[in-house]
Write a structure and sequence with these properties.
CATH topology of chain A: Nucleotidyltransferase, domain 5
Number of helices of chain B: 12
Strand content of chain B: 15-25%
Oligomer: heterodimer
CATH class of the largest domain in chain B: Alpha Beta
CATH superfamily of chain A: ATPase, nucleotide binding domain
Radius of gyration of chain A: 17 Å
Distance between the termini of chain B: 19 Å
Shape of chain A: globular
Strand content of chain A: 25-35%
Strand order of the largest sheet of chain A: 3-2-1-4-5
CATH architecture of the largest domain in chain B: 2-Layer Sandwich
Order of helices and strands of chain B: EEEHHEHEHEEEHHHHHEHEHH
Number of strands of chain B: 10
Structural class of chain B: alpha/beta
Number of domains of chain B: 2
Strand order of the largest sheet of chain B: 3-2-1-4-5
Number of strands of chain A: 9
Number of domains of chain A: 1
CATH architecture of chain A: 2-Layer Sandwich
Mean pLDDT of chain B: 95
Helix content of chain A: 10-25%
Largest interface: A-B, 35 and 37 residues
CATH class of chain A: Alpha Beta
Mean pLDDT of chain A: 95
CATH superfamily of the largest domain in chain B: ATPase, nucleotide binding domain
C-alpha cells in the first residue's frame, strides 16, 4: 500500500493526482501554458490534505522547458522535505497509456511550430521521443490533444533523472557571431 | 518569532544559491554559479541558467543544510526570490521553495530580490539601518532607494533609464576583450591605471537633469563614449581606459546617492548589489561619506553578489516582524517593483 503524489507539468495542463496502487484517491488539474508556477503548489496543497504521501512520481517531459522545470523542481524539493523518494518518468508514455490502438503517435506542442512526439506500437514506445515539425511526423494516427493519465504515470517503470529537453539552449558564442 | 531559522533560495539570474540564517546570524551561504557556462556567450543565456539551476538545486540545498548543521525539519520558514529576474530562472527557485514549504508544512516568504540585497547588511551589523538611503547596483539593476522599513516600506527615488551599472562594466569589458563578467576584470586592471587620464561623460548630471531627474542614472552614453574612444585611439592604454570608465560610474553613483541623502536629511547610506563589490566604489564611498558625515554600510564583497543568505535574511526579518507570509501559490514576477518587499 503505497500512496504516491503524481505531478506532471509537461503540457499546458498542470496535473496532480494522489494514487494508491491502482486507485485514484484525488485528481486535480489547471489549464494554462504559463500557469504551472502558481497552479502546482495550490493543487498539491489541496490534494495532500487527507493523505500521507510515501513517494513522488514526476513527468520529466518532453515539454516546454519553463513549465516542465517547475514540476521537477517542486517534486524533488517536496520529496527532500518529506524524506521520501522521487522518481521521474516519460510524460509522453503517460499520455499514450490511455490510447487503445495498436499503432499511434502522441504529439505535444513544443512551441516554434514544432511538436514533441513518439510512436507507440502494441503498447511499446518506438525509440526515444523526438522534436520535429508536424509535417514530418506521420505513419500512424496522431493524438495531439491529450494530457497525461496520472494513474498510468505512477505505474510506469524506471527512473529518468534528467529532464527530457531534446533541444539545446539557443545561444551563439561571441566568437561565432557575424 | 525572534530568531527564526530560515532557508532562502535565490535563482533570479545565473547563481543557484541557498542560504540559511537564524535571525540575524548567518549559518550557511552556498552558491553554485553557472557563470563559466555563459562566458563564451558574453552574457547570461537564460535557458542555460535555468537548466543549471535545476541541476544544482538539490545539491545546493543539501550542502547548505550540512554547512548550517541543521536539518530541514528544524526550518521555521522558507524564503525565495519571486522577482525581479529572469522568469524561467526564477521559477526553478519558486517551484523548489514551494515544494519545500508544502512538504514541511511551513510558511513561505516570496521576497523581492532588490530588497534582499539591502537586507543582507543586517547579517553583518547589529543596529537597525532604517531610515537609510540605499544604492542598489548590479548587472541587472541600478536604483536609488529610500528605505524606511526593510520589511514594509521602500521608496524608489530613481533608477537607470538604460543600462544597469554592472551591464556597462560587462559591455565595456567585452569591447576591451577582458572577458565576462566584466566587473572584476575592470576593477583589477583599473588599479594599474590613471582614473583621470580620460574625461568620460557623467550621465544625467547636467543642471537640467539635476532639476528634472536628480536620482536617475544613464550609462549608455558612457558606453558609447568609451567605445568611440577605443576606435579613435588604437594604441589606447587599457588600464587608463578601465580606470577612467570606472571612475565615471563610481563618481555619478555617489554624486546622486549623497545628493539623495542630503535632500532627504537621512545620514545613512547602504550600497548593495554585485557592483558594491567594486573596490574603487567602496573606497570612494568611504572617503566621500566620511566627509559628508554619512554613515556608510557596504556588505562584505561575498555578500554583495547574488546569494541565498540575503533571501534568508529578508525572510527572517519578515518573520521576526510578524509580517504575513506569502500565499503558497504565487507566480514569479520578472519585473517586480522594489516597493513590493514580499508578495502577500
Amino acid at each position: 500500500m503505497t500512496i504516491s503524489l503524481a505531478i506532471d507539468t509537461s503540457t499546458s495542463r498542470t496535473c496532480v493526482a494522489i494514487i494508491e496502487d491502482d486507485k485514484v484517491l484525488w485528481n486535480g488539474h489547471r489549464d494554462g501554458a504559463t500557469e504551472h508556477g502558481p497552479a502546482l503548489p495550490s493543487l498539491v496543497q489541496e490534494g495532500i490534505r487527507a493523505f500521507s504521501i510515501d513517494e513522488v512520481i514526476v513527468g520529466m517531459g518532453p515539454g516546454p522547458f519553463t513549465g516542465l522545470r517547475v514540476g521537477i523542481a517542486f517534486a524533488e524539493s517536496f520529496a527532500l522535505a518529506r524524506g521520501i523518494t522521487v522518481r521521474g518518468v516519460c510524460s509522453l508514455d503517460a499520455i499514450a497509456a490511455q490510447v487503445k490502438e495498436s499503432d499511434f503517435i502522441i504529439t505535444v506542442d513544443a512551441r516554434r511550430k514544432e511538436v514533441y512526439w513518439a510512436r507507440y506500437v502494441d503498447g511499446v514506445r518506438l525509440g526515444e521521443p523526438a522534436v520535429n515539425f508536424p509535417a514530418v511526423v506521420t505513419g500512424a494516427t496522431i493524438y495531439a490533444d491529450l494530457f497525461p493519465d496520472m494513474k498510468a504515470l505512477v505505474a510506469l517503470p524506471g527512473n529518468i533523472t534528467e529532464p527530457i529537453y531534446l533541444r539545446r539552449p539557443d545561444a551563439v558564442a561571441t566568437a561565432d557571431r557575424s | 518569532m525572534s530568531q527564526p531559522l530560515v532557508l532562502g533560495i535565490e535563482t533570479s539570474c545565473d547563481e543557484t544559491a541557498v542560504g540559511i540564517v537564524r535571525g540575524r546570524r548567518l549559518l550557511a551561504n552556498v552558491i553554485a554559479s553557472s557563470v563559466e557556462e555563459h562566458a563564451r556567450f558574453g552574457g547570461v543565456v537564460p535557458e542555460i541558467a535555468s537548466r543549471a539551476h535545476l541541476e544544482a538545486m538539490q545539491p545546493t540545498i543539501k550542502q547548505a543544510l550540512k554547512d548550517a548543521k541543521v536539518s530541514l525539519s528544524d526550518i521555521d520558514a522558507v524564503a525565495v526570490t519571486a522577482g525581479p529576474g529572469l522568469v524561467g530562472a526564477l521559477l526553478v527557485g519558486v517551484g523548489s521553495a514551494a515544494g519545500l514549504a508544502i512538504g514541511l508544512d511551513k510558511p513561505i516568504y516570496a521576497v523581492n530580490h532588490l530588497a534582499a540585497h539591502i537586507s543582507v547588511d543586517y547579517l553583518t551589523h547589529d543596529q537597525p539601518l532604517e531610515p537609510t538611503i540605499a544604492l542598489l547596483v548590479s548587472g541587472g539593476h541600478s536604483s536609488l532607494l529610500q528605505v524606511n522599513d526593510i520589511t514594509s516600506s521602500i521608496i524608489k527615488l530613481g533608477q537607470t533609464i538604460d543600462d544597469a551599472a554592472g551591464e556597462a562594466f560587462d559591455k565595456i569589458a567585452r569591447v576591451m576583450k577582458l572577458g565576462f563578467p566584466g566587473g572584476p576584470a575592470i576593477d583589477a586592471i583599473a588599479r594599474e591605471g590613471n582614473a583621470t587620464a580620460i574625461d568620460f561623460p557623467r550621465g544625467l548630471t547636467t543642471s537640467n537633469d539635476w532639476q528634472t531627474r536628480p536620482y536617475d542614472f544613464s550609462f549608455s552614453g558612457l558606453k558609447t563614449a568609451v567605445a568611440r574612444y577605443l576606435e579613435n585611439v588604437p594604441d589606447y592604454v587599457r588600464a587608463d581606459v578601465a580606470a577612467s570608465f570606472q571612475e565615471s560610474i563610481v563618481d555619478v553613483l555617489l554624486l546622486k546617492a549623497l545628493a539623495a541623502a542630503k535632500s532627504s536629511g537621512i545620514d545613512s547610506l547602504v550600497i548593495a548589489g554585485g557592483v558594491a563589490a567594486n573596490s574603487r566604489l567602496r573606497a570612494v564611498a568611504q572617503t566621500r561619506c566620511e566627509k559628508a558625515g554619512i554613515r556608510l554600510r557596504i556588505p562584505a564583497p561575498g555578500l554583495c553578489t547574488d546569494n541565498g543568505a540575503m533571501v534568508a535574511s529578508l525572510g527572517a526579518l519578515l518573520a521576526a516582524a510578524n509580517r504575513t507570509p506569502s500565499p503558497v501559490a504565487f507566480d514569479a514576477d520578472s519585473s517586480l517593483s522594489v516597493q513590493t518587499v514580499s508578495l502577500t
